[in-house]
Amino acid sequence: MKIYVIGKPIKHSMSPIIHNYWLRKYSKSHVYEKKEVCKDSLKKIIEQIKTKKIVGVNVTIPYKKDFYNLLENLSSNAKNSKAVNTLYLKNDNVYGENTDGIGYCKALKQEMNYEVKDKNILVLGSGGASFGIISELINRKASKIIVSNRTKIKCNQLIENFRNNKTKFEKMEWQKIEPSREIDLIINTTSVGMKENEQINIDTKNLEKNTIFSDIIYSPKKTRTMKSFEEKGFLTQNGLGMLIFQAAEAFRLWFGINLTKQDINEAKRICETTY
Ligand code: ATR
User: In terms of domains, do 251 and 185 share one?
Assistant: First the structure.
């Protein structure tokens, strides 16, 4: 039986390496494959899960929002972030979940021993990944989230989407990213840094030295922005942990298996050797 990661383009996905490792380790006969699909076939995929022809799928760009609109059964994270990255069958119904935020927070906990509860967090970006992560930062009771995005209207829409929560929201100009002393954690959810020469200009002069810079990009392994924070003595983290932990959440939804720390670390090591 197959499990797919679907998107367009899909060539660069590392998800098959991760899932096929765990599938073999847990003696599952399933195979996880990449599949490039058109928008027309999304309904058919839901049907295939319902009729147990496939176990489930992971979804990546550009279909996360489409599945949010197509599915009747959605988790609270999928609802709040208006995006679905995992489809699975529960009680004969196809459910949509978004494991990005949980994956991010679990990686932060495991790799940096860091909890977001009561923290003031600067989130760079207002795209799909930002929505998914912020949904979980709110679940875990972050104190304040400051959002900065190149396109102001998208930043406003994101804040409007999450407004009725206990977590406070503020905005910061993209052209003048100058976090104050109160910021505990900075998360880059934008794609700036995927090209080796790109860097986000952040004025770090007010920051405490225990502020963490966390980038959800994992290729390159260290973005220029990460390097500049490290040179100034800050701790940094890349996005590989988030990739593995969001995969582990999906694996749990499909098979009811809670992967161990060792399973996570083994998958991470395999990924690290492939890029
Ligand atoms: P994803 O689902 O990966 O979050 P996305 O929804 O396309 O992808 O969001 C991409 C994010 O990266 C957005 O916040 C985008 O900013 P805009 O809203 O202004 O487009 C940000 N981004 C991409 N390229 C950027 C660049 N060159 N400078 C600044 N921000 C950029």
Answer: no
